[in-house]
UniProtKB/TrEMBL annotation:
It is an enzyme of class 2 (transferase). Its cofactor is Mg(2+). InterPro entries: OPRT (IPR023031), Or_phspho_trans_dom (IPR004467), PRTase-like (IPR029057), PRTase_dom (IPR000836). Orotate binds at residue 130. The gene is pyrE. Pathway: Pyrimidine metabolism; UMP biosynthesis via de novo pathway; UMP from orotate: step 1/2. Catalyzes the transfer of a ribosyl phosphate group from 5-phosphoribose 1-diphosphate to orotate, leading to the formation of orotidine monophosphate (OMP). Belongs to the purine/pyrimidine phosphoribosyltransferase family. PyrE subfamily. Gene3D superfamilies: 3.40.50.2020. This is Orotate phosphoribosyltransferase. Its EC number is 2.4.2.10.
Amino acid sequence: MIFNKDTAEKTAELLLQINAIKLNPENPFTWASGWKSPIYCDNRLILSFPSIRNYVRDEFAKNIEKQFGKPDVIAGVATGAIGVGILVAESLGLPFVYVRPEPKKHGRQNQVEGFLQKGQNVVVVEDLISTGKSSLMAVEALRNEGANIKGMAAVFTYGFSVATENFKEANVDLFTLSNYENLLDLAVQKQYITEDQQSTLQEWSVSPSTWGQE
């Protein structure tokens, strides 16, 4: 679910402007999973544009507090959400931790890096939601450390039904600055894509794992 419509449209426009999101239905990208996709999203680019990263920081800080209440800790999911997560934590005057995909193989073998006490309220910051599996693994790691997860806030989601199901099953509320639906509407409006291309992009979102296969 998006925080609000105005933020969703503005965020989508900014992501398109800096090529953090690229739309190419005619020459689809191949994801690491092997899926063919007419969209590629790299929200790490946000950090390279001061005015845009400040906008994302401020919208996160304002909407996290409004939606979840002020938590005790902000957690970022490594590696894509560490930078944005730190910015949000700094803006809210809160401690920050980050979650590795898996525990370190040496030293203290931490998966959660930083100081976290049992029972603390945590909002998790993520850059991108596809199926939600890696994001929810971070939630599980935090819960294993005794954290009380208030919810997750992400820059963008593709809006896959499987992600909705995964978050529901994990009992995690997800809110995003923008999503696929608002992105496509904005992309047509600003003439990044045609209405025919929009139809192709909508078809992909219905069945992304099989789209483009012969």
